[in-house]
Amino acid sequence: MAGGAREVLTLQLGHFAGFVGAHWWNQQDAALGRATDAKESPGELCPDVLYRTGRTLHGQDTYTPRLILMDLKGSLSSLKEEGGLYRDKQLDAAIAWQGKLTTHKEELCPKNPYLQDFLSAEGVLSSDGVWRVKSIPNGKGSPPLTTATTPKPLIPTEASIRVWSDFLRVHLHPRSICMIQKYNHDGEAGRLEAFGQGESVLKEPKYQEELEDRLHFYVEECDYLQGFQILCDLHDGFSGVGAKAAELLQDEYSGRGIITWGLLPGPYHRGEAQRNIYRLLNTAFGLVHLTAHSSLVCPLSLGGSLGLRPEPPVNFPYLHYDATLPFHCSAILATALDTVTVPYRLCSSPVSMVHLADMLSFCGKKVVTAGATIPFPLAPGQSLPDSLMQFGGATPWTPLSACGEPSGTRCFAQSVVLRGIDRACHTSSPQGHLHPPPYPHLFSSCSPQGMVLDGSPKGAAVESIPVFGALCSSSSLHQTLEALARDLTKLDLRRWASFMDAGVEHDDVAELLQELQSLAQCYHAGDSLVD
Questions:
Q1: pLDDT tens per residue, the chain (531 residues)?
Q2: Among 205, 306, 194, which Cα is nearest to 241's?
Q3: Domain tally for the chain?
Q4: Burial letters 274-303, b for 16+ CB under 10 A, else e
Q5: 8 and 354 Cβ atoms separated by less than 8 Å
Q6: Structural domain includes residue 493
Q7: Residues 6+ apart with CB under 8 A from 385
Q8: Residue 279 domain-assigned (yes or no)
Q9: Domain residues for 168?
Q10: What is the pTM of this model?
Q11: For residue 235, is it within any domain?
């Protein structure tokens, strides 16, 4: 890779992971688009860490995410499993079988107006079935979103978004999407609901070999692979898929970093008994098994609790979001993720995924919490020290791991990133976190550059914001993990035979409780940075 980039391979496992991933890749794409503008100076982040170069059979250069994603049947909507960049009708016709063929076609889902507008800006599908991408400045990134002669792209509405592919604006490589056809995304039957089901998926030769083939494809073209980041749903059967995938990575790629982001969607309600119990069990099994096979694990959620007792979603002073909408929740979590992962994505930095994990996970503390201030509250003319002073002695970020408020807890180790602040004058900078058109309108009282204002300017869309993000090894995890174990001990497992029938034994639950309590104990005592 150019410049000796330390490559990272991303795995997205699950539908909410797809929502977070779609926002994540849209944000990377926006940064690439800005970097290709001759008027912009090169950024500090190295896009080659996350992206790979390629070439179609027609000689067109491509720059696509180094990504493997897994989702269920019916989850792609109008997105094709093979993507659109490399499609070739002539190759489709060159099949070995020369006998009689019967073709069965499913009716394609219509694209929403936003994606139709995006595709018309990106390129055209020619008469020979080949996607012709419009010229890309400097060979990387997407063409500019708008020009003097093209209208502004449409903004997707919440009503138009049913699945994550409805707002993904990045073209994927044909090796990226891996569909689990035996389970359904929609409907009440055939759902991937339990941890044991997810584990069983990657025990099947078909899916295990498919994942291994895709891993080998991406890994073998890397020069300096530093590791893998896994975005994995924790609340459903994908917790088992993630655990098995992490185990496979640990076995095959020993010494590489494996950082897992365990994702949970918005709030839940007491009335949904089975869903809540499954959520608890999947989360507990997922955390324990992922911790065993990852360098670092961080739960990410806007909810207030990982346990059975519902807590209200977290509050941001300058954000107005609907916690019931995955489109909103995933945008916020992707913004935080884009910031806390900066240390191992810089063009020049001694910090790799392995180093970051080692710094945060000493003495068995492999689970960390995340937090972010979105946007960082910097007013026009205000200095960074003055802005920090307004927090007083309080922790300057909103918790994003459903582990309660960090106040009054011990911090054993932390990684903190503040981006979007000009180094010279400590004011808001265009190198902040970008918000391309698919990002929902969540901000109040902010300028287009994310500066906090007394009143919200009419018609001013926020283009970028300063963001403060942190990963923390904290004693709050002692209470959280112990509470999870207590909730599990209260369950009458005989009532939830369907979960057990999916591949979990009673001995597995007993071992889970022991592992949770041992993990919780790691955060009970010891030296800390803050007391």
A1: 345 789 999 999 999 999 999 999 999 998 887 665 544 445 688 999 999 999 888 888 999 999 999 999 988 877 888 776 765 444 344 334 455 555 555 555 666 666 666 655 555 444 444 445 544 444 454 443 333 334 455 667 777 899 999 999 999 999 999 999 999 988 777 889 999 999 999 999 999 999 999 999 999 999 999 999 999 999 999 999 999 999 999 999 999 999 999 999 977 776 678 889 999 999 999 999 999 999 999 999 999 889 888 789 999 988 999 999 999 999 999 999 999 999 999 988 779 999 999 999 988 899 999 999 998 888 777 777 777 777 776 778 899 999 887 777 888 999 999 988 876 555 555 555 565 767 888 887 777 777 777 665 544 677 788 899 999 999 999 999 999 999 999 998 888 888 988 889 989 999 999 999 999 999 986 555 554
A2: 194
A3: 1
A4: eebbbbbbbbbbbbbbbbebbbbbbbbbbb
A5: no
A6: no
A7: 426
A8: yes
A9: 7-82+160-362
A10: 0.88
A11: yes
Residues constituting the chain: 531
Q: Is residue 433 part of a domain?
A: no
Question: What is d(CA 327, CA 16) in angstroms, rounded to the nearest whole number?
Answer: 9
Coil vs helix vs strand at 440: coil
- Residue 350's CATH number: 3.40.50.1440
| 420 Cα distance to chain centroid | 21
Question: What letters, b where the CB count within 10 A reaches 16 and e where it falls short, cover 13-47?
Answer: bbbbbbbbbbbbbbbbbbbbbbbbeeeeeeeebbb
> For residue 13, what are its two tokens?
């496992």
Q: Quick one: CA dihedral 381, 421, 331, 39, positive or negative?
A: positive
